[in-house]
Amino acid sequence: MSRRGGRASLIAVAAGLAILAYITYNTITTAPGSSTGLSAGAHMPPFAAPLVTSDLVGDANVALHANEGAAGARPACSIADPRALNSCTLARRGPVMLAFFTQDAGRCLTTLDTLGSLAARDPRLSVAAVAIRGDRGTLRALVHRHGWRFPVAQDRDGAVGDLYGVAICPTVVLAYRGGVVMRTALGSAETTAAALKRDARTLEAGRRRSGGAA
Predict the structure, then answer these.
(1) How far apart are CA 174 and CA 98, in angstroms?
(2) Are residues 25 and 44 both part of a single domain?
(3) What are phi and psi of 207, to 5 degrees?
(4) In this structure, are 75 and 89 located in the same domain?
(5) Most CB atoms closer than 10 Å: which of 7, 92, 132, 180?
(6) How far apart are CA 109 and CA 30, in angstroms?
(7) How many domains, in total, are found in the chain?
């Protein structure tokens, strides 16, 4: 093979790898993939993650027990720091609408705007969001610019997203009070304003039937 032919082959291989990397990234972040998130009937995995508007810095705690190394020194559910979003506390307060998003995906941000409107209309809903990785300053600016009044946490190393099977943006976990999952809504088609309003009504009806105390 000539030197020119060898160089052309290397360029072709490099270009092919670049295209493959782009397709893989785009699939994970914007299009439906193989992940379906948490299944109906599953329990929300516990986590405590720093709020982007706080001064708490670090990776999320995802420990079930004490002394679990990188997962956490103590159980996530035991963390009562107001600077962190605690999934156990969230589930105790009422029906959960928990969104996962990335800072650069516009339609994810639109979903969060819809959740903010639902939370304003019905304070019994436990609405929150988790940013997968991202930049703290950028995330804080998004919260202020969009006027989100619900808690927004940062999953700095992606551990929470892994636990919840997040592969699509947006992903919204819908759970009854107590943390039992009703369903996971994936992608734009399942997280429209109309769909999320229906989900909110279903969650509220489920809460009333269960007779949970406030």
Answers:
(1) 7
(2) no
(3) -65, -40
(4) yes
(5) 132
(6) 13
(7) 2
> Using CA atoms, how far apart are residues 21 and 103, in angstroms rounded to an integer?
20
Domain that holds residue 117: 33-210
Tell whether 22 and 113 lie within a shared domain. no
CATH number at residue 88: 3.40.30.10
Q: What is the DSSP string of 23-60?
A: HHHHHHHHS--S---SPTTPBPPP-EEEBTTSS--SPP
| 129 within 8 A of 152, measured Cβ to Cβ | yes
124 shares a domain with 21? no
In a structure prediction context, what are the per-residue pLDDT tens digits for the chain, which is 214 residues long?
Answer: 444 444 444 444 344 433 333 323 333 343 334 468 999 999 999 999 999 999 999 999 999 999 999 999 999 999 999 999 999 999 999 999 999 999 987 888 999 999 999 999 999 999 999 999 999 999 999 999 999 999 999 999 999 999 999 999 899 999 999 999 999 999 989 999 999 999 999 998 886 544 443 3
